[in-house]
Amino acid sequence: MQSKLRVADWLRMVVALIFIATLLAPEETSAQDRSRGGRRRAAEAGETQSDATNAPAEGAKPKEKKLKLVAQARELVDFPVPSRIRPVVVSADGRHLAYELVRGERHLAVVDGREIGVFARLWNLKFSPDGSRAAFVAQRFDDERHVVILDGREVGVFAEVATDSLAFSRSGDRFGFIARKDGAQPAWVVVIDGETSPSWEAVLPTSLTFTGDSSQVAFAAQRDGRWHVVVNGQAGPAWDEIAPHSLSFSPTGGRMGFAARSGTNWHAVIDGKSGAACAAIADAMPVFSRDGKHVAYGARRAGRWHMVVDGEEQKAADRLEGFVFIQDGARHAYVAHRGGKDVVVLDGKDDKDFGEIPGPLAFSPDGKRFAFVAIKDGRPLVVVDGKEVKAYDEIGTGPLFGPDGKHCAWLARAGEKWLAVMDGTESTESYDGCKAGLVFREVNRISFYAIKLDAAGHDDFFSVAMTLVEE
Question: pLDDT tens digits, residue range 142-156?
Answer without folding.
Answer: 999 999 999 999 999
